[in-house]
Amino acid sequence: MFGLEGGVLAGVTIGPSPLLKINQSPKRYMSMDRNNTAQLQLFEFWHSQSSSKSYITKVHLSRASQPGKRDLLSDWRQEEQSALCPYSLHIQGSVMAEEAKQTCYEGSSVQSFQFYLEHSGEHEAILKCAHNLLPGEFQRIAAGKSSLDVLGVGSGGGEVDAQMLTLLQSTLPAVPVTADIVEGSAALTDNFKALVAKTATLQKIQFVWHVMGSEDYEKQVRAKGDMKKFDFIHMIQMIYYVDNLSSTIKFYQSLLKNNGKLMIIVEAADGGWDKLWKTFKKELCTGAITEYRSSAEVIACVKSLGLKYEEHVISNTFDITECFNPSSTNGGRLLNFMTAQDHFYQSFTPEIRAGMLDLLRNKCSTEKDGRVFFNSNLSCILIHA
Ligand SMILES: C[S@@+](CC[C@H](N)C(=O)[O-])C[C@H]1O[C@@H](n2cnc3c(N)ncnc32)[C@H](O)[C@@H]1O
């Protein structure tokens, strides 16, 4: 939740606790004041780890010579002012609009995701697939090459990346490896860095950290004209969040080197997530995810781009029995993550909640020995260079 604390709007001293920069690149947001005579540019969002709130720390204010026309940044800087109070209401409104576009995990979503990982067996299922599939793939990708470059997009805390990179090194011990990581969550990137620091098998890998969303990375690569190419690119459980599915796949596929592979792991078509999110699209697709994508949408897109691919099913189920006990904290937390809410019980009407729970039990799960197991099969799609 974006909010103001500590009373001062501009400057990095807002709030009672140290702030962490969220976005590497400035976020710009344009808005008019009530009289349509001023434009505001907000940039740099900071996140307070202790209060789990985000703050604007720089606000550029400009009186536009012509209402509706954007001034040059240099003009704006001249008017960087403390005269922000009259605009604070308006600014908060703007920030709320900006918040909806934030897809990378910060604050409560980091804890919610961590909780989900501990209860879903998802990483274990993905790693089983990786161990079956990747050694052979790595051998094919590496044929005739003296080094390998890997790109992880939306890598989160890097638990899966670390294991895949370890697997790559044990498959091809003599081949030097670099790993570029594109992840917009500063908190999860810090977790990933800490994991690298304590993992002996990763010490020889040269990491390059891009703490930004995939879209900003793409823009940066295009602006620099510096197309570093990669042998293996992976996007694990993150394709739901990108602005444009087709252009994203096209872009990352274009970064593949000879014999390279782009691996996309996504919820399986017709699995539990697909049914839940498509049935309750109106209620659920309102935040970071505006259009739910399962392997069906990804494969349709890959086909429409004329790309060569293969698909591997990753079977997984997890126990959601607690979700049907309204007084269970763990059940509530699972429901929070599965519906991308902070508070499942406060976010929907009783009718919608009942409909979701009914669907979860009767259409998305199977029952065994009195327990309810949610179908969370995944699909691993390997796209060729
Ligand atoms: C479900 S998590 C998956 C993390 C990791 N790949 C895993 O499987 O553990 C989704 C990740 O995508 C990141 N993310 C969301 N939107 C993104 C974007 N536009 N560009 C890059 N990463 C993004 C989130 O911050 C989060 O780390």
UniProtKB/TrEMBL annotation:
<dbReference type="InterPro" id="IPR016673">
    <property type="entry name" value="HHMT-like"/>
</dbReference>
<dbReference type="GO" id="GO:0032259">
    <property type="term" value="P:methylation"/>
</dbReference>
<keyword id="KW-0489">Methyltransferase</keyword>
<dbReference type="GO" id="GO:0008170">
    <property type="term" value="F:N-methyltransferase activity"/>
</dbReference>
<keyword id="KW-0808">Transferase</keyword>
<keyword id="KW-0949">S-adenosyl-L-methionine</keyword>
<comment type="subunit">
    <text>Monomer.</text>
</comment>
<protein>
    <submittedName>
        <fullName>Histamine N-methyltransferase</fullName>
    </submittedName>
</protein>
<dbReference type="Pfam" id="PF13489">
    <property type="entry name" value="Methyltransf_23"/>
</dbReference>
<dbReference type="InterPro" id="IPR029063">
    <property type="entry name" value="SAM-dependent_MTases_sf"/>
</dbReference>
